[in-house]
């Protein structure tokens, strides 16, 4: 079945090349052939390596926090005093040395060495760190889910962290 599909695609591509080599004309033959020509052009574009056909950046997409506001997240980090323990890029007053610096947080594989660094786990961690690591020095700040999501959006934004 797959061989038939490949042969059909080759036939369409060959017919399209022959047709496109002919001088442009108007008329019913051209009108009938246009859908086939469009299909062949689309198939050829699918195989052509040009900037319009680059694969999606799945790594970057996996770090996007849905409904998270990174600007509000930065404001919340200042409000909750995160900078008293962490160095946080983009927040001038955040120069703490108790917790780890949060530079390039989006590129880290794990949160506190125990949770995968993805939006959902980071949001849950920010809401209640001792629930995941009882001996952590990071306190539960009483964040709402929306607040934690916004802070996660800031930390996972490569431009913000």
Describe the structure.
With 161 residues, the protein is mainly α. 50% of the residues lie in helices and 2% in strands. It contains seven helices and two strands; from the N terminus they run H-H-H-H-E-E-H-H-H. The protein has a two-stranded antiparallel sheet. The longest helix has 20 residues, at 2-21. The two termini are 50 Å apart. 20% of the residues are buried. The mean pLDDT is 82.
Please tell me the overall pLDDT: 82
The helix count comes to 7
Query: What is the rounded distance between the termini?
Result: 50 Å
Q: From the structure provided, what is the oligomeric state, counting identical versus distinct chains?
A: single chain
Work out the radius of gyration: 27 Å
Coarse morphology: elongated
- Lateral arrangement of strands in the main beta sheet: 1-2
Structural class: mainly alpha
Specify the helix fraction band.
Answer: 40-55%
Indicate the proportion of strand residues.
under 5%
Poorly predicted sequence stretches spanning 5 or more consecutive residues: none
Largest pleated sheet: 2 strands, antiparallel
Q: In total, how many beta strands? A: 2
Which series of helices and strands comes N to C? Answer: HHHHEEHHH
């Amino acid at each position: 079945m797959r061989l038939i599909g490949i042969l059909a695609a080759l036939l369409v591509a060959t017919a399209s090349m022959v047709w496109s080599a002919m001088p442009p004309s108007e008329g019913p033959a051209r009108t009938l052939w246009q859908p086939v020509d469009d299909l062949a052009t689309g198939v050829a574009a699918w195989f052509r390596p040009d900037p319009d056909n680059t694969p999606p950046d799945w790594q970057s997409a996996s770090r996007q926090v849905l409904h998270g506001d990174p600007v509000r997240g930065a404001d919340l980090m200042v409000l909750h005093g995160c900078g008293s323990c962490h160095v946080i890029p983009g927040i001038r007053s955040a120069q703490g040395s108790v917790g780890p610096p949060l530079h390039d947080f989006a590129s880290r594989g794990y949160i506190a060495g125990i949770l995968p660094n993805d939006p959902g786990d980071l949001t849950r961690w920010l809401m209640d760190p001792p629930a995941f690591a009882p001996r952590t020095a990071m306190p539960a700040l009483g964040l709402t889910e929306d607040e934690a999501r916004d802070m996660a959006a800031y930390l996972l934004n490569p431009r913000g962290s």
